[in-house]
Amino acid sequence: MNKTYAKIILSISIVIIAAAVFYCLQFNENGDRTTPINDGITSFVEFDVDCPECGTSTEGTIFVMQSRDSVKLRVMADLTVGETDKEGLDFFIPKEFDITGIQCSYKGVTSSEYVTLRPYPEGGNDVYIARTHIVPSGGGDGMLVMDLQLNGLVKLKDIDSLVLSISAAETVVEKVVIPITY
């Protein structure tokens, strides 16, 4: 009976040890995998636009991802629009960029209710946040993520920078210069 008891204990111990070794191997295998972090980012530019008179402001970062023949930008911005502000925020995107995606959470709403995209006749686009011109949006906070892709209107070798304009309440405008490197 002692031999049988010893065999059972030995079998259970082997199973537990095998399970522990298998778990450790799996853990190490998953731990060694690398997740891309900041993959492709070549530079970034920070901005801060504030109109204290109306309580409207935005600050954020533009991440630049550049390859030999292309430039992509990701604009990430915190948004605040004052309660009485009818003009809101305006991100002017030059004609050299196509807008490939916009995500906005102004006032906790993810519909397009507070986001307006207006093309310029000369080229380029305005992305308005909480611009009403009639009745103020009531103010609020949010987040904007916008992806841009350089289109074929300009060749990288012909430029050393691009400029985006960001305005708060149409009174405070910041020109954000995006450096292009070779």
Counting structural domains, the number is 2
What is the strand tally? Answer: 10
Order of helices and strands: HEEEEEEEEEE
Q: Describe the largest sheet.
A: 5 strands, antiparallel
CATH topology of the largest domain: Immunoglobulin-like
Strand order across the largest sheet = 1-2-3-8-5
Beta-strand residue percentage: over 45%
What's the end-to-end separation, in Å? 80 Å
CATH class of the largest domain: Mainly Beta
Count of helical regions: 1
Mean of the pLDDT scores? 85
Bin the helical content: 10-25%
Rg, alpha carbons? 26 Å
The assigned CATH architecture of the largest domain is: Sandwich
Low-confidence stretches: none
Helix/strand/pairing category:
alpha+beta
Q: What characteristic shape results from the CA principal axes? A: elongated
What does this structure look like?
It contains one helix and ten strands; from the N terminus they run αββββββββββ. The protein is an alpha+beta fold and 182 residues long. The chain folds into two domains: 1-33; 41-179, Immunoglobulin-like. The chain has a five-stranded antiparallel β-sheet, with no helix packed on it. It has a five-stranded antiparallel β-sheet with strand order 6-7-4-9-10, with no helix packed on it. A hairpin with a 4-residue loop joins β2 and β3 (71-81). The chain is elongated. The chain starts with a helix and ends with a strand. The model has no long low-confidence stretch (mean pLDDT 85).
